[in-house]
Amino acid sequence: MKLQELKRKGYTIPGRNLIKTAEQIEGIRRACALSNEILDIIDERICPGMTTNEINQIVHEYTIKKGAYPACLNYNGFPKSVCTSINNVICHGIPDETVLKAGDIINVDVTSVLDGFYGDTSRMFIVGEASLEAQKLVEVTLECLNLGIEQVKPFNRTGDIGYTIEQYAKKHGYSAVREFGGHGVGLKFHEDPWVPHYGKRESGMVLVPNMVFTIEPMINIGTHRCRILGDGWTAVTVDGSLSAQWEHTVR
């Protein structure tokens, strides 16, 4: 009855194609578990002196070994199997011969395609000992993610997620990136709905059971504004400030 009332009021309601079956949810869960397992391996191995290409190699080889495929590879021309975003890189950093230094913070974003299902997740890693400023940003961004997840309940809306994240970031003097957001996932790499990490309560799409999407707040110490580098992928903060991101797939 509540959903019918919301429809009559003109709220944006997810189409049936966005509602996953129990079988699909189980497949997505397995894919997410593999992505999380890969991040556990990175957690064990990441250290000063490692290159982001070495991270890419670990991700690629383990994904293939498990009978899966890295969704990033060749996605709209993306050349590597994982995104590695260091310090002022907001997202979509391309692995190369960049050497990690003590004090760097890096987001490693893994999406595995297993048996046709997509599992998308990312983590922040602190390389060696980082500044208190960097540590706080990483911790607050994780708290933003967890607070956003708490808003995932039937008949809440995507705007409730974004509002909660943005207000918590602002409380700490940070800004939430607006150019990128969470997204539906599971049968494709990117599906509806768009999940902003800023905005107003009671706005956006209504959440209903068995929707599957990511929440992935990107939080900057400085302005929320970004620019894309000449490679067409790498998004960096316009003021050179640090950025952090955590990502989790929810239903």
* Structural class assignment: alpha+beta
Percent helix, as a range, is 25-40%
* % residues in beta strands: 15-25%
Give the terminus-to-terminus CA distance: 21 Å
The backbone outline, from C-alpha atoms, is globular
Calculate the mean pLDDT score and round it: 95
Topology at a glance:
Layout (H helix, E strand, L loop, with lengths): L1 H7 L13 H24 L6 H14 L3 E2 L12 E4 L2 E3 L13 E10 L2 E10 L5 H19 L7 H14 L3 E2 L5 E3 L6 E5 L17 E3 L2 E3 L5 E3 L6 E3 L5 E3 L2 E3 L1
Antiparallel strand pairs: 1-4, 2-4, 3-12, 4-5, 6-10, 7-8, 9-14, 10-13, 11-12
Task: Kindly describe this structure.
- The protein has helices at residues 2-8, 22-45, 52-65, 132-150, 158-171; strands spanning 69-70, 83-86, 89-91, 105-114, 117-126, 175-176, 182-184, 191-195, 213-215, 218-220, 226-228, 235-237, 243-245, 248-250.
- Strands 1, 2, 4 and 5 form a four-stranded antiparallel sheet that branches. Strands 3-12-11 form a three-stranded antiparallel sheet, with no helix packed on it. It has a three-stranded antiparallel sheet with strand order 6-10-13, covered by helices on one side.
- The chain is α+β, with helices and mostly antiparallel strands and 251 residues long.
- α4 (132-150) packs antiparallel against α5.
- The chain has five helices and 14 strands.
